[in-house]
Amino acid sequence: SHSYTKYNSWDKIQAWISSVSAANSDLISRQVIGKTYEGRPMNVLQIGKKTGSPKPAIFLDCGIHAREWISTAFCQWFVNEAVTTYRSDSQMTSLLNQMDVYVLPVFNIDGYDYTWKSMEIKNRMWRKTRSRNYGTRCRGADPNRNFNARWCTEGASRNPCRDTYCGSKAESEIEVKNVADFIRKNKSIIKAYITVHSYSQLLLFPYFYYQLAADHAELMSVARGAIRALTSMYGTQYRAGPGATTIYPASGGSVDWAYDLGVKYSYVFELRDTGRYGFLLPESQIKPTCEETMLAVKYIATYVQKTL
Ligand code: 0X9
Ligand code: ZN
Ligand code: ZN
User: Fold this and answer.
1) Could you give the ipTM of this predicted complex?
2) 223 Cβ partners below 8 Å, 6+ apart?
3) CA distance 117 to 127
């Protein structure tokens, strides 16, 4: 059965989505924003006190890359922390009274499921979606190169057999289109966009091309505060900065796209570790990783709440 301190298969996560929503119907509403290429429903959980009128919101997604299992574990952890600490934790209570958090627990469900169903280690390392590409047996595109942000201009490949294949056009991947449509539709209320990856212990923000964001100074200072909070728990070291100069330039990423749409507080987390285990982070690290990351996400959320 489902466990917050283990990695869960898609089937278990799907059942958990139903049960956690049903058990916390005072705080959680769920909606299907579309289906994946292979037909799996993409559920977004809206978490917050139900006030009957639209509230300012934060959009949080995990698992855009299939093999980054700790990312997917974090969204489940976040939902559980939100519902179990609402009322007892003043910061969470205030946040969920005033704002909603939209959580997409697994962005790339087909890819995630593929990393579970196959016994071959090479498929545990699958990153992309599972769509068919014209004229080749190689499947999938990198959803984090498929957004309409300087699409396929740098740090992305036109070769469908590569891990950073940008797709046949921006939003060619149905999962990307579903998320982009949802954020576009709700852009007047979405104040922050947080996307969770692994690994490298980084907190990144726009741009992933060589240009400073207009809000660079503020994004950097909020990131530094978030890291300070994260590090305070177990001493885990993080670096913060704009994507292009902190890791590498890359076009078509969700965070640049969200920022250019007008979502000012747009961040990418790259969770533990720094390479010892990489994408194969042991289950013993799920709890400490999620607990420390909660502090950083809550720091950003509380900052955004204060700007309202
Ligand atoms: O390359 C990526 O997509 C991310 N790193 S990962 O190792 N998790 O694949 C970095 C975030 C990229 N974000 C943008 N390009 N906007
Ligand atoms: Zn990633
Ligand atoms: Zn906790």
Assistant:
1) 0.90
2) 203, 205, 240, 241, 267
3) 14
Spatial distance between the Cα atoms of 53 and 47, rounded to a whole number of angstroms: 14
Residue 129 lies in a domain: yes
What are the tens digits of pLDDT across the range 208-243?
A: 988 899 999 999 999 999 999 999 999 999 999 999
**Distance set, CA 121 to CA 41, 118, 223, 271, 279 (Å):** 27, 8, 35, 22, 12
Residue whose structure tokens are 């965070």: 255
- Evaluate whether residue 3 is within a structural domain: no
- pTM here? 0.97
Cα–Cα distance, 111 to 38 (Å, whole number): 10
What's the gap between Cα 268 and its chain centre?
A: 7
Measured CA to CA, the distance from residue 230 to residue 238 in angstroms comes to: 8
Q: Which residue ranges have their beta carbon within 6 Å of ligand 1?
A: 65, 68, 144, 197, 208, 243, 250, 253, 255-256, 268, 270
The question of whether 270 is a catalytic residue gets the answer yes
Catalytic residue among 270, 283, 291, 292: 270
116-123 own/partner pairs: CB under 8 Å, 24+ apart: 116/9, 116/10
Q: Does some domain include residue 204?
A: yes
Pairing of strands 190-198, 57-62: parallel
Work out which ligand 1 atom sits closest to the CA atom of 270: 8
Q: What does the alpha-carbon distance between residue 146 and residue 156 come to, in Å, rounded to a whole number? A: 9
DSSP 65-119: STT-HHHHHHHHHHHHHHHHHTTTSHHHHHHHHH-EEEEES-SSHHHHHHHHH--
Q: Using the mean position of ligand 1's atoms as its centre, give its distance from the Cα of residue 166 in Å.
A: 12
Q: What is the pLDDT of residues 104-159, one digit of tens each?
A: 999 999 999 999 986 665 699 999 999 999 999 999 999 999 999 999 999 999 99
CATH classification of the domain holding 114: 3.40.630.10
**In this structure, are residues 208 and 244 in contact, taking their beta carbons and an 8 Å threshold?**
yes
Q: What percent of the chain has pLDDT over 90?
A: 97
Q: How many domains does the chain have?
A: 1
Does 5 reside within a domain?
no
